[in-house]
User: Fold these one by one.
Assistant:
Number 1:
Amino acid sequence: MKKEVIEIEKFSFSINDKKILKNISLTVMKGEYISIVGPNGAGKTTLLKCLDRIYKGGVGSIKISGKPIEKYRQRELAQHVSYVPQADGNIPPFTVREFVMMGRYPYLNPFSSVNFSSNKKDEKTVQDALSMTETLKFSERFLSELSGGERQKVFIAAALVQEAEILLLDEPATFLDPKHEAGIYRLLARANREKGVTIISVTHDINSAVMTSRRILALKDGVSAFCGPAGDFMNNEILLKIYEKPFIFMKHPQTEKTIVAPEAP
């Protein structure tokens, strides 16, 4: 029987007296894949940061695995929730292996070196994550030497080695070319399918949201404007309220799922 891993109830959050999230409620079951969509400024990234307690406070409640989020110590919370932020151009000065080993910090001795762990489980977990993300072949290279797509896979590997049941991602395929974008989404689908990782991913690409996720949460001005099966989202009555424009639809030639067709210039 599946359990609830995230329970958000009537949650609101403000920054500098500006209300960003308004009365959000959402229950996420273990093993779900949910995409969060919506226009710029809708509160998508803010919600992720509240779930990882980067942003603290707010009105209402958030529970992670049945426990109020404010009751967790940070290292304990990191054993339940991992977070891959949106790429911002800042590149940490570490090798791939060093950076991924840092993802084990919830389990490592605070004085451990990132170059070494005497724990065979840590070493195996890192090795498995590097293999799964296809980054093992450049594990001794510095992050600065990698392409954007390769680096994004490393960031996901670092999140996977936390062995958290929940993986939060903010625009995981932003700025990537089609090949690397497809690779990232295949990797996330595999982690969800094979490891049972619960995935919550923020994206502006509603086609990828429909293709990859089982449910979609759409935010508009900090309010939940839609929450339901991904297939039900491709409806102009719904999309017009969220994006203030109609869309043209077509059937995907491989999956038969309804997707948005590109508009003629």
Note: The mean pLDDT is 91.
Number 2:
Amino acid sequence: MNPDLLITTNGFKGTWPSIEYGAWLAATLQTKISLLGVTENLSPAAIDDHHPLEDVFARAVELFQQKGLEYSLEVRNGDAEQVIPRKAKEGNFITVLGPLGRPQIRRWLIGKSIRHLMEEISGPILYVPVSCLPLKKVLICIGGLGYEVTAEHIAMQVAMSSRAEITLLHVVPPVDLDYPTTRAERENWQHLADTNTPVGRSLRQALEIAEKDGLTVIVKGRRGNVVEEIISETKGGDYDMLCMGSPYSGSALRQLYAPNVTAEIAEGARCPVLTARYKREG
């Protein structure tokens, strides 16, 4: 059973692309929508004032009805960074987020909201700074440790429904250690799928799944800083969705896909970013 979509907004106009994209995804996956509106800093004196959420909800309901989607509406009071994770824990959701329109000084003092939300939400997250439709090209980042598998499965399902082209990307980071595995990756970074390394096995597994589903697949390798190389690939590749994982583990390679790194990529990407924590079988 597909998870429901939890689409969120605080009334900021920058969240509309995430609502629009979420509606498309719900139709693609044939799943339900829970639209969560967060009213922030609502004083008793302003209780009867027109709130931006009213306009956003009206547009969203019209869109959902046009697409024939099953949906529910809910409004909660508080800071979105606190309210959204609490709601996300109440069900099996893919949480769809957009920029919350925070002032620059707030971002300087406590960081960008997407970082906090990625740390607090355990389920899959789809961050939509812009709506890139139709979906034609999907970039899936393969780390080699299996952390991307949860997000990869969702991305494959979406790509199959849209018949989108998939690019599998692995970035070989600069390392000082000279273990056999790191040496093999460093020396064979342009054709890692042919190696018996963890990355090679992950790439072959993803290739097998994609080709079994009849999808067009391209494999790419890069060398350098993981964040910089992924952002560079997204900018140059004209992708409509970026997919990557997050381990939340004590691995020595944790920094490659840690929440703050994933957030950096989301902040720099020019397309929706799908991410999900790694979950071990059993």
Note: The domain at 4-127 is CATH 3.40.50.620 (Rossmann fold).
